[in-house]
Amino acid sequence: MSKTSTGRQTTWVEKALRAALYAVLIIMAAVYLMPFLVMLLTSLKDVEEIRTGTLLSLPSTLDLSAWGKAWGEACTGNNCGGISPYFLNSFQIVIPAVLISTLLGAINGYVISLWKFRGSDLFFAALLVGCFIPFQVILLPMARTLGWLGIANTTTGLVFVHVVYGVAFTTLFFRNFYQAIPGELVKAARLDGAGFFTIFYRIILPLSTPIIVVTVIWQFTQIWNDFLFGVAFSGFDTQPVTVALNNLVNTSFGGKEYNVDMAAAIIAALPTLAVYVLAGKYFVRGLTAGAVKG
Amino acid sequence: MNTKAANSEPKKAQSGRPARLSLADWMPKIVMAPTVVVTLVCIYGYMIWTAVLSFTNSRMLPSYKFVGVEQYERLFNNDRWIVALTNLGIFGGLFILICLFLGVVLAIFLDQKIRAEGAIRTIYLYPMAISFIVTGTAWKWLLNPTNGFEKLMIDLGFENFRFDWLVNPDMVVYCLVIAAVWQASGFVMALFLAGLRGVDGDLIKAAHLDGAGTFTTYRRIILPSLKPVFFSAMVILSHIAIKSFDLVAALTNGGPGYASDLPANFMYAHTFTRSQVGLGSASAMVMLGCVLAILIPYLYSELRGERHE
């Protein structure tokens, strides 16, 4: 630890550089935090205070009425029941969609990495393309299909769509994870007479907890934050919260209540923010796994 | 289906080696079948369907009267599409460049044994957890000329400060850039930070022994070894840019006029609200072309890399 042992001396130049480094990092942190802070401050002010104050001025009183209004009374389009019904819609879409797509991804990943058959690699490559296509290219045919199946504008329809286009990602995650499992493990189990599902259930699934967590978090975030499918395929009563929020903010009659808009936006962001705060490590792993796919 | 399969398992176990083409051999194929079918239909089938529609005169409903490349001609003679495409160029280009720059710089800075690194990293990355709709809502408020930054600066004493990009047709696309960079740059930082942590420590030590300073080490050794991360980040960011739809919907709704439209918004508007299914399909195919132009070289190099290992 002494200066001589490291052969370096802390000069004032180094100290200044170090201080500058911290300054830059802290300023940037403030920049990233600022929008959220402004949203929070705005949601706690009344309309008059918003008009007279500035973005960063503190609210004079702690006024939670905008939150109550955003939750239960605000008008999205013609419906004035707040965003709470849509918030619940989102959960009704997200929970089954996440569970089904994760389960399918696990089984597909298991097959592709440990039970390869002729064409399974080719299929995996074909599936990967599904992670990247712009969804505009499937939007209209899917709308027609949902109509034929009689599930247009329903929660079931949205779950179906999210599962279909989520499976590419979940399969990718599980495949990459299972790729590291030695094939001998499966071979040995087969010699012992274990079958396809026994091996999956007894050997593979118990090893899979980390990748299940990552996949569930990734899918939850993706589906919760979706807007395109929500706006294209949901009915008035089945809209997810992102669509409702957008309608609320773009509703233009009457005086604009920015405090209510901001409260609604924070409510819409809370579930994924909570996941991020509670399981940030897995969230980041999901991001990088989805990113560096390979 | 699954229960049947589970029941058949013991039989196979008793017979010792699996018989040729027993159910157990088919099991992997059977469980994959639904995904295969759904993928072929809902990804490739629909893609072809949209491609077919783009060569028809479909308006409100799909029709199958073929008109050749007429829709593509209409598309590229459509001022709104040209604006959307130009916007994508400006938005995508700036978004990618700024995110990469910020991502690299912040990652290198954070890599200097910073106290509270975890907390700072968490702050940089949290926008990525949020929906673009929320991001758009937040920035619509911040960039609002009467209440947002402009007012803040005027109240701080800069009385002539003007910041009206959100309502200025020439500048509104830069508002999209600001919000999107805020959202995604932390993610790029995380990618690079992971990359930096993966650089071989011995290489860096060797460079130091050779007398290379921190700056030289980064420039000559560390950054070049992060090329794959650069590449991945670029592909993902350009992919985000081409798909951007929700940010525009929430932040500007394409306005003023259609000055901030992106191709995704053009496609949606023409297909679902303006009854121009043929034209909308053609625009979707152009978007697909853009993605494939980036994706194919990327996948090719990735897969080739895998084989070399």
TrEMBL record, chain A:
<keyword id="KW-0812">Transmembrane</keyword>
<protein>
    <submittedName>
        <fullName>ABC-type transporter, integral membrane subunit</fullName>
    </submittedName>
</protein>
<feature type="transmembrane region" description="Helical">
    <location>
        <begin position="122"/>
        <end position="143"/>
    </location>
</feature>
<comment type="similarity">
    <text>Belongs to the binding-protein-dependent transport system permease family.</text>
</comment>
<dbReference type="GO" id="GO:0005886">
    <property type="term" value="C:plasma membrane"/>
</dbReference>
<keyword id="KW-0472">Membrane</keyword>
<dbReference type="GO" id="GO:0055085">
    <property type="term" value="P:transmembrane transport"/>
</dbReference>
<dbReference type="InterPro" id="IPR035906">
    <property type="entry name" value="MetI-like_sf"/>
</dbReference>
<dbReference type="Pfam" id="PF00528">
    <property type="entry name" value="BPD_transp_1"/>
</dbReference>
<feature type="transmembrane region" description="Helical">
    <location>
        <begin position="20"/>
        <end position="41"/>
    </location>
</feature>
<feature type="transmembrane region" description="Helical">
    <location>
        <begin position="155"/>
        <end position="178"/>
    </location>
</feature>
<feature type="transmembrane region" description="Helical">
    <location>
        <begin position="199"/>
        <end position="220"/>
    </location>
</feature>
<feature type="transmembrane region" description="Helical">
    <location>
        <begin position="262"/>
        <end position="284"/>
    </location>
</feature>
<feature type="transmembrane region" description="Helical">
    <location>
        <begin position="93"/>
        <end position="115"/>
    </location>
</feature>
<dbReference type="InterPro" id="IPR000515">
    <property type="entry name" value="MetI-like"/>
</dbReference>
<keyword id="KW-1133">Transmembrane helix</keyword>
<feature type="domain" description="ABC transmembrane type-1">
    <location>
        <begin position="87"/>
        <end position="279"/>
    </location>
</feature>
<keyword id="KW-0813">Transport</keyword>
TrEMBL record, chain B:
<keyword id="KW-0813">Transport</keyword>
<feature type="transmembrane region" description="Helical">
    <location>
        <begin position="277"/>
        <end position="300"/>
    </location>
</feature>
<dbReference type="GO" id="GO:0055085">
    <property type="term" value="P:transmembrane transport"/>
</dbReference>
<feature type="transmembrane region" description="Helical">
    <location>
        <begin position="122"/>
        <end position="142"/>
    </location>
</feature>
<keyword id="KW-0812">Transmembrane</keyword>
<feature type="domain" description="ABC transmembrane type-1">
    <location>
        <begin position="85"/>
        <end position="300"/>
    </location>
</feature>
<feature type="transmembrane region" description="Helical">
    <location>
        <begin position="171"/>
        <end position="196"/>
    </location>
</feature>
<feature type="transmembrane region" description="Helical">
    <location>
        <begin position="81"/>
        <end position="110"/>
    </location>
</feature>
<keyword id="KW-1003">Cell membrane</keyword>
<dbReference type="GO" id="GO:0005886">
    <property type="term" value="C:plasma membrane"/>
</dbReference>
<keyword id="KW-0472">Membrane</keyword>
<dbReference type="InterPro" id="IPR035906">
    <property type="entry name" value="MetI-like_sf"/>
</dbReference>
<feature type="transmembrane region" description="Helical">
    <location>
        <begin position="229"/>
        <end position="251"/>
    </location>
</feature>
<dbReference type="Pfam" id="PF00528">
    <property type="entry name" value="BPD_transp_1"/>
</dbReference>
<protein>
    <submittedName>
        <fullName>ABC-type transporter, integral membrane subunit</fullName>
    </submittedName>
</protein>
<dbReference type="InterPro" id="IPR051393">
    <property type="entry name" value="ABC_transporter_permease"/>
</dbReference>
<dbReference type="InterPro" id="IPR000515">
    <property type="entry name" value="MetI-like"/>
</dbReference>
<comment type="similarity">
    <text>Belongs to the binding-protein-dependent transport system permease family.</text>
</comment>
<feature type="transmembrane region" description="Helical">
    <location>
        <begin position="30"/>
        <end position="52"/>
    </location>
</feature>
<keyword id="KW-1133">Transmembrane helix</keyword>
